[in-house]
Amino acid sequence: MKGRSIEPFFWSLFSSGGMLAALVLPALALALWVAIPLGWLQAPGHQHLVALIGHPVTRLCLFGLIALASFHWGHRFRFTLYDGLQLKHLFGLIATLCYGGATILTAVAAYVLWTF
């Protein structure tokens, strides 16, 4: 009996990361790069941001966004290299670098958010 592939796991991370990024990042970009500079919203103060990021739910949401977006990038970049640049012969190396990079980014995010 042949072992099961873990490919569906990475596809699920890819799709959930893409969906989350598509829903959350445009709202953040609108608020931070359009509404605040144009004066539609008041910029939050330092103490407010520290209190917001200090809340465990905010940390968990930021961790989820960063982790899923990282794996979305890793999966998309992997298949860009495979199909776009025709580097399928480097299958193992590319998969290791892409998913390893996403794992490292996730670990760094976890460390920074845990020690904040």
Structural account:
This protein has about 120 residues and is mostly helical. The chain has a single domain (about 5-115), classed as Fumarate reductase/succinate dehydrogenase, transmembrane subunit (3 helical TM bundles of succinate and fumarate reductases, Up-down Bundle), CATH 1.20.1300. It has helices at about 5-35, 45-55, 55-85, 90-115.
Number of H/I helices: 4
Helix content percent band: over 70%
User: Mind describing the biggest β-sheet?
Assistant: none
**Judging from the principal axes of the Cα atoms, what is the shape?**
elongated
Unreliable residue stretches: none
Question: How many separate domains make up the residues?
Answer: 1
Secondary structure layout:
Layout (H helix, E strand, L loop, with lengths): L6 H29 L10 H9 L1 H29 L6 H25 L1
Features:
3 helical TM bundles of succinate and fumarate reductases, 116 residues, single chain
